[in-house]
Specification:
Shape: globular
Largest sheet: 8 strands, mixed
CATH architecture of the largest domain: 3-Layer(bba) Sandwich
CATH class of the largest domain: Alpha Beta
Bound molecules: flavin-adenine dinucleotide
Strand content: 25-35%
Helix content: 25-40%
Oligomer: single chain
CATH topology of the largest domain: FAD/NAD(P)-binding domain
Distance between the termini: 33 Å
Number of domains: 2
CATH superfamily of the largest domain: FAD/NAD(P)-binding domain
Structural class: alpha+beta
Radius of gyration: 21 Å
Length: about 375
């Protein structure tokens, strides 16, 4: 079959691929975005804008901590980038930067937060550790179990449903050609670019190929003969019915898995790393009752006002991890090929990661040294 042509093909229509396609189209490039339409992390995520190091990742992957620390200065920039994007698109993402609290339930956890905060301050973050009295003045909703918290002033939250929809509309308005419900089944290098084979039996030829396919990136990279060790991590999420406004901050825990925040519409979103399953056959994520019970029990324990609220929906999504750092930039052995995988808390990092890779493709100075994030570290 004769292949269609496109200057650029972006594989993956999550926050990274969609933003990248839109930014490239703004610069006048002819862009086709291909997505298999199963929904990735960006449609499942909880809308937390993370900045401080997440204790969950530190405990799960201690070997990744040096990589996380190196990437840390990108996070406050990423939240500012989100704010600027909301303004530039004239959209309302319900974005609020009220700060994020990582709570402790005992002296040992509070000591851990002191050490963590000290490291983070040296890396340029704006953080403080609050004992119970000071915490109560800004967050009176915590139960008696909470003895203190680290506050990171740059953290916040947004409504990902609104942000994703606004970005998609913007990409379409800029002329991005969306090919949704279509998986990439084959990639081949040609004399002057790449041939992308699609599950609808079509194919596209392009000079520039960007793989922004999150956990799918490893398989796609293997089709071109190189390694990106992406790992899929299925996660469970819960949301309550709407309640009167009470929680302004993003909440996490120093030692246990939770994120908790209240949307502008009153619902409380509860997640933070509780596992989901992968359904046999189709490979889609599936919620777990034990995760739901443990997650909402912990939420009620630290914020008792959550306990009378009904859970109105649960869902599961696939998160992607690599080695604690993003994988951003050119594959130097393959001219015209770029990788865009954002790293931990990838929704927070998504639009900024897209901008950095977009500038590299356009031959502009991205304003960051991307050598730490190079895909070539796995060569
Ligand atoms: C439940 C959950 C909650 C989360 N909460 C937060 C949060 O609050 N804050 C935060 O910062 N991060 C959060 N994350 C992480 C965050 O959502 C992801 O890191 C981020 O969305 C990744 O964006 P992405 O564009 O790289 O990938 P994705 O959004 O996963 O998109 C990748 C896309 O690639 C497509 N694709 C893959 N392979 C192929 C193929 N062969 N052919 C065609 N298409 C393909 C998929 O269909 C998918 O749409 C959460 C993740 C999960 C799972």
């Amino acid at each position: 079959m004769k292949a269609e042509d496109s200057d650029v093909v972006v594989i993956g229509g999550g926050i990274v691929g969609m933003a990248l396609a839109a930014f490239l189209a703004e610069a006048g490039r002819d862009v086709m975005l291909v997505d298999r339409g199963e929904g990735g992390g960006s449609t499942a995520n909880a809308g937390s804008l993370h900045v401080q190091m997440q204790s969950r990742f530190m405990q799960l992957y201690p070997e990744n901590v040096p990589g996380m620390e190196r990437q840390l200065p990108l996070y406050p920039k990423a939240t500012r980038f989100w704010q600027a994007l909301e303004t530039r698109l004239g959209a309302d993402f319900e974005l609020k930067k009220n700060g994020g609290l990582m709570v402790a339930e005992n002296r040992q956890q509070l000591d851990f937060l002191h050490v963590k905060a000290e490291r983070e301050r040296k890396l340029g973050l704006s953080v403080d550790v609050l004992e119970r009295d000071a915490l109560e003045r800004i967050a009176p909703y915590f139960g008696p179990a909470v003895v203190g918290a680290e506050i990171c002033h740059d953290e916040g939250k947004l409504n990902p449903l609104r942000a994703n929809a606004a970005l998609r509309a913007h990409a379409l308005a800029e002329g991005v050609r969306l090919r949704e419900g279509c998986a990439v089944t084959g990639l081949a290098r040609e004399a002057d670019g790449y041939r992308v084979a699609l599950s609808d039996a079509g194919a596209v030829r392009c000079a520039t190929l960007v793989i922004a396919a999150a956990e799918g990136t490893g398989k796609l990279a293997a089709m071109l003969g190189f390694t990106i060790p992406t790992r899929a991590e299925p996660l469970h999420m819960n949301i309550t019915e709407a309640a009167a406004p009470m929680i302004g901050h993003l909440i996490q825990h120093a030692d246990r898995m939770i994120t908790l925040k209240q949307f502008a519409t009153g619902q409380i979103v509860i997640g933070g790393g509780w596992p989901a399953d992968i359904a046999e056959g189709r490979g889609v994520p599936r919620t777990r009752l034990d995760s739901m019970i443990a997650n909402v029990t912990l939420a009620s324990h630290i914020v008792p006002a959550v306990s009378p609220l009904r859970i109105i929906r649960t869902w599961a999504g696939i998160n992607t991890s690599v080695d604690g750092k993003g994988v951003l930039g050119p594959v130097t052995t393959h001219p015209g090929l770029y990788i865009a995988v954002p790293g931990d808390a990838g929704y927070t990092l998504g639009p900024l990661s897209a901008r950095l890779v977009c500038d590299t493709i356009l031959g502009l100075d991205p304003g960051e040294d991307l050598s730490d994030y190079s895909p070539m570290r796995f060569a």
